[in-house]
Amino acid sequence: QDYTWEDHGYSLINRLYPDVGQLLDEKFQVVYNLTYNTIAMHSGVDTSMLRRAIWNYVHCVFGIRYDDYDYGEVNQLLERNLKIYIKTVACYPEKTTKQIYTQFWRHFKHSEKVHINLLLLEARMQAALLYALRAVTRYMT
C-alpha cells in the first residue's frame, strides 16, 4: 500500500507538529521546482521530467515506488554515471569522490550539478521521513 508524502506524511506530521508539515512541504517544493530552464548549453528547456526522474530514482533506491510513474523515464533520462553518483551520495555519502562527481554530465555547469545534489538530498530526506512517519502511523493504529 502506498504511503506518500502528499497523502499521508504531510498530514501526520502536521498533526504531530503543527506548521512543520507546511515548512517541509515548501522546502521540498522549492528544490523540486527550481530550474533555470537550461541544460548544458541549451536554454528554454522544460526540465520537469528530468527533475521528476531524479526524485523518483532516489525514492526507488530506498524502496519507495509509485504505481503512477513510468520508471522507463529513469533509464531514458539518467545516464549510468549519474545513477552511480546519485546512489553513492544518497546511500554512501562518505564514498563520494571528485572523480564520481566529474564522471557525469561533463559538459554541464557546476550550478546544474549542485541542483542535482539539492534534489537528491531533499528526496532522500523525504524518503527517510516517509519511513519514519509510516512507522509512527502503524504504532498509532
Describe this entry's structure for a reader.
By secondary structure, the protein is mainly α. The chain has one domain. The chain is 67% helix and 3% strand. The chain is built from 7 helices and 2 strands; from the N terminus they run ααββααααα. The chain has helices spanning 5-16, 20-33, 48-61, 72-77, 80-91, 98-103, 110-140, and strands at residues 38-39, 42-43. It has a two-stranded antiparallel sheet with strand order 1-2. α3 crosses α5 (80-91) and α3 (48-61) packs across α7 (110-140). It is globular and about 50 Å long. The mean pLDDT is 94. One of its GO terms (cellular component) is nucleus. It comes from Brachypodius melanocephalos (black-headed bulbul). This is SESN2 protein.
How many helices? 7
Strand content: under 5%
Number of domains: 1
H/E series, N to C?
HHEEHHHHH
Helix percentage range:
55-70%
How far apart are the first and last residues' alpha carbons, in Å?
Answer: 15 Å
- Average of per-residue pLDDT values: 94
**Poorly predicted sequence stretches spanning 5 or more consecutive residues:** none
What structural class do the secondary elements suggest?
A: mainly alpha
Q: Enumerate the strands of the largest sheet in spatial order, edge to edge or round the barrel.
A: 1-2
> Multimeric state of these chains?
single chain
Shape: globular
Characterize the biggest β-sheet. 2 strands, antiparallel
Q: Quick one: how many beta strands? A: 2
Radius of gyration: 16 Å
